[in-house]
Design a protein that fits this description.
The chain is an all-alpha fold. It is built from ten helices and no strands.
Length: 175
């Protein structure tokens, strides 16, 4: 699929395809759509990042609040987005011991109490042990530092989800 295909998508098609690149934030995809034409996948990714960077802190916190707790109730209930479910499975968060699940639950609650948004990390770039260590460490960050760190993680997730979309296109086409 050439980049022209993405450029020629109408609003609904574009939001349908890219609406969860930023977890549960189709409005970001809607805003990015207005910046067509895209010259490359990298340019499209940059537009997602630029949109987020221009948000005030409250907007960035809103994006973070759309993310589920890692190994939380949405995973247990099966109500995660398909992307989040795959990411948490890949990180091993479905194979926690009782002690790990309890520890992660307590850390998630403490983190949310401190920062007022869930802990966000690119699960696909980490495993369950690293995620628990990062959560244990990052809970001590300043609110400003943690907001910036969490948004950087959202951008990593965005990058991988855009690559997933690219990898679903027919072979022999290019962006």
């Amino acid at each position: 699929m050439e980049i022209q295909v993405f450029n020629s998508m109408d609003y609904e098609e574009f939001v349908d395809k890219f609406g969860n690149v930023i977890e549960k934030c189709p409005l970001v995809a809607a805003a990015v759509w207005t910046n067509r034409p895209f010259t490359s996948l990298a340019a499209l990714e940059k537009m997602f990042g630029d949109f987020i960077d221009l948000l005030p802190p409250s907007g960035k916190e809103g994006i973070l609040r759309c993310h589920p707790d890692l190994a939380g109730r949405d995973l247990l209930r099966g109500t995660l987005s398909s992307e989040s479910q795959g990411e948490q499975i890949q990180a091993g968060l479905t194979n926690l011991t009782v002690a790990q699940r309890s520890q992660l639950s307590e850390l998630n609650a403490s983190y949310k109490n401190r920062f007022h948004f869930p802990f966000v990390i690119c699960a696909r770039m980490n495993d369950k042990d690293t995620i628990i260590k990062q959560l244990s460490s990052r809970i001590h960050n300043s609110p400003e530092h943690e907001l910036n760190t969490s948004i950087a993680e959202v951008k990593k997730i965005c990058h991988l989800r855009l690559l997933d979309i690219l990898n679903r296109v027919p072979h022999g086409t290019k962006l």
